[in-house]
Each structure stands twice: as structure tokens, then as C-alpha cells.
């Protein structure tokens, strides 16, 4: 009897989730139909306003999930989790096509920038309203895009009205966190292996060659940082640079600073509730700690996580970041 009751509850839960997914899909289909109708009528910019788009760039493991979860939980905010549109165009333009940027036949040729920037703009705005039709009526679309930071200069040029958050974290903590996340048995690592088992060996590079892994992660962080800086300095719209350490030390004050600088009105009591809801102390114990997405949240934890040789590698590879933001050690 108990087993039958549990099976029934599981079926009920599955049905409820399926109905919820179906409802969301119907909303998205309706949004797509409305989008096509507007297109036929020539209303290209109808839908999400570009000035209501808020980008979060930087790099992986800098606290962008935490920040955007808090922002996405506020009224009239929606979180778009890593569309990778920045990686799509940035990788093609800066890595694959860097020798052809002035070539006539290259699809992202600099000579035809006005043409393809419009396509990038449309892809983001139309893609946003198709997925999140509730934002077509106003409110903010917060796009978490740390792994697409290589394309930040392109995206900010395509959407100059949009807002931008540049999130910085001590590279030593970033690399230590990444080393843990890519280690054998960690939840992020196991999730990747489950999705594409043919691409992953039983052990990971983080386990087999940790120093080489750390060097690669350090280089990636510096690259993401430099592309984000380029976009930040060129952007004439509303923007703010935030250190993860400040966000962690005084979350409420830093969140107020973000919203004030970006000229985004927010109710202070709601902001306080959201900060409390997503505080480290209120995360369930089985959802945080080593091997999870929310690993440590302790600035300076790299001192216990990395060997002296590994610390030297990170400090050498990311010296420009450390000299500017963490000169005090």
C-alpha cells in the first residue's frame, strides 16, 4: 500500500510538472505568433525594450549565478541563464575569424558591421520575448552571460541602450572554485558527464593534470576579463563594476549601489527580502559545500585550496587583474 501511494504521488508530481511545462510552451508559442505578426507589420522593435536588458559579464565562478538569482527574484525581473549568444559571435569574430575581419566574404566582416549588428540585436530581443513573453510589457531582462564575455564588445555595440554589470572576483578564488567544480565526483562534473558521457573520461583534467588545468583556467579568466573591460570602457550607457568580495561582505549595500548606478528603481524592503532569501546561511546544507555549485563563498579561501605552486601559476597568469583590484593580497 505504501509503495502504491508513493507511486501515485510520483505520478501526480510528474503530471503537474508536465502540465506546467505545457503551459509555458503554450505561452512561448503565443509569443512567437505575436512576434511573427509584428514582423509582418514591420514592427521590428516591438517587444522587449533594449534599455530594459541588463547584461552580467565577467567570467565563470565569479558569483554571477548568485547575483542574477537575486535580481531575477525581484518584481518585474526575469533571469535569462547563459544564452551563450556572446560566445556564438565572439568566438567566431575574435578567434575563428580574426584573420578575415576585413574580408568581404566573412559573414561578420567589419565592412558590413551595420548589417550584422542589426541581426545580433534582433536575435537577442526577439529571442528574449519569445522565451519570456511577460517582459514584452515592461520590466527587466537580466542576462547572465559570463561564458559569453568574449562577445561582450559585440553585444554592447549591438544594444548600446542596454545596461551592463562587470563582475570581478579574485582570480585565485575563481580558479580554486573551478578546480573543485571540474573534479571527479563534483555535481557540475557529473551533470556534464551524464549529458554527454561519450565526451568524458572517468577522471578529469582537473584531477590528472591540476597545474595545467589551473593555467588554462587562469588564461581563460584573463581573456574574459579583457573582453569585458573593452566592452565596459566603450559603453556609453548605464554600467557598473562590482567586486564579488564587496557583494559578499555587504550584500544589501552593494545591491543598492548596483541599482542606483544603473538607474533602476527598486523597493528597498523587497531588496532586503531577496538578499535574505539567497544568503549563504539560508541555502540548504545539501545544496552547498565542496563538489556543489555553491562551494564556499569565502573570499580568500584560495589560501587553503591551492598549493604554493598553483598560487604562483594563477598570480603570474592573471597579474593585470590582481595588480588593479587585489594589490593588497
From TrEMBL:
Gene Ontology MF terms in the entry: N-acetylglucosamine 6-O-sulfotransferase activity
Region Disordered: start-end pairs: 178-207
Residues annotated as domain Sulfotransferase: 160-316
GO terms (BP aspect): N-acetylglucosamine metabolic process; sulfur compound metabolic process
InterPro entries named in the record: Gal/GlcNAc/GalNAc_ST, P-loop_NTPase, Sulfotransferase_dom
Protein name (Swiss-Prot/TrEMBL): Sulfotransferase domain-containing protein
Biased composition, class Basic and acidic residues, residue ranges: 188-207
PANTHER family the record matches: CARBOHYDRATE SULFOTRANSFERASE, LD35051P-RELATED
